[in-house]
Design goal:
This protein is an alpha+beta fold. The chain folds into two domains: about 150 residues, Sandwich (Jelly Rolls), CATH 2.60.120; about 80 residues, Arc Repressor Mutant, subunit A, CATH 1.10.10.10. Helix content is about 40%, strand content about 20%. It is built from eight helices and eleven strands. The strands form three sheets. Strands 1-2-9-4-7 form a five-stranded antiparallel sheet. Strands 3-8-5-6 form a four-stranded antiparallel sheet. Helix 3 crosses helix 4, helix 5 crosses helix 6 and helix 5 packs across helix 8. It is elongated. About 30% of the residues are buried.
Length: about 240
């Protein structure tokens, strides 16, 4: 981890985060109070069960949020990208953090202290509304995840996961919109799907043989999006 300086007024992530609702005076307060760091791939920003002392605003990079069971096995909860903020639910609920945030690529993240953030929530109605909307959105995603695990087969969940990854990590500057731009180990894909790594490897080979996808090393390109959509919705 390396400390860096990043001004909220010139940060690209400001336009898609709650900071876009801040007044100039509020931005100055946040800029003066926050601390920014550069994290290398594989480093963790915070850990589950720790007490939240503030929130984290992702300026650049990608993070996976994971929870561990009693045997120490990780479960990927979701991913976060530029402009997203982390740790706010635990802070608002006055509960310990429920996940560990680990960088899956080099990442720049800013920490905003608890008192500064809560003061913004109290005084700025637009930020308050934005945070409520984010909480509701996350709850909706969690409900969809529970339904998928309960009702869909592994094959259907893998198709759903590939489409989710392609949509989540698609950038405006991508020359190949069908390529899943993030490189995830097969173990991580299996973790998202909720099955064994060997099963995911076998099903990916089947998808490739059926010309639904192509694989270049660890990267995956979707060849037949319509067919994958039909597979992912088979049980719906």
């Amino acid at each position: 981890m390396q400390k860096i300086h990043l001004d909220c007024k010139t940060c690209d992530a400001k336009s898609v985060s709650f900071l876009s609702y801040c007044t100039q005076e509020e931005l100055d307060i946040v800029s003066a109070a926050k601390s920014c760091s550069h994290f290398k791939k594989g480093q963790s920003i915070f850990y589950e069960d720790n007490i939240s002392l503030g929130i984290y605003c992702l300026s650049k990079g990608t993070i996976k949020l994971t929870r561990s069971n009693k045997d120490g096995k990780e479960q990927i909860i979701r991913f976060a990208r530029e402009g997203e903020f982390l740790g706010y639910r635990a802070l608002i609920a006055e509960e310990p953090l429920v996940a560990t945030a680990t960088c899956i690529e080099d990442t720049i993240c800013c920490f905003i202290p608890k008192d500064v953030f809560l003061n913004l929530l109290e005084k700025n109605a637009q930020i308050n509304k934005h945070m409520l909307k984010s909480l509701c959105h996350d709850l909706g995603l969690a409900d969809e995840r529970i339904q998928s695990l309960a009702q869909k087969s592994v094959r259907e969940r893998l198709a759903e996961t590939l489409l989710f990854l392609q949509k989540t990590f698609q950038n405006e500057n991508d020359t190949d919109e069908n390529l899943i731009s993030v490189t995830l180990p097969r173990e991580d894909i299996a973790n998202i799907v909720g099955t064994a790594t060997e099963t995911v490897i076998r099903l990916l080979s089947e998808f490739k043989n059926d010309k639904l996808i192509d694989m270049e090393g660890k990267k995956i390109r979707i060849l037949n999006k319509i067919a994958l959509e039909k597979i992912s919705h088979a049980s719906v």
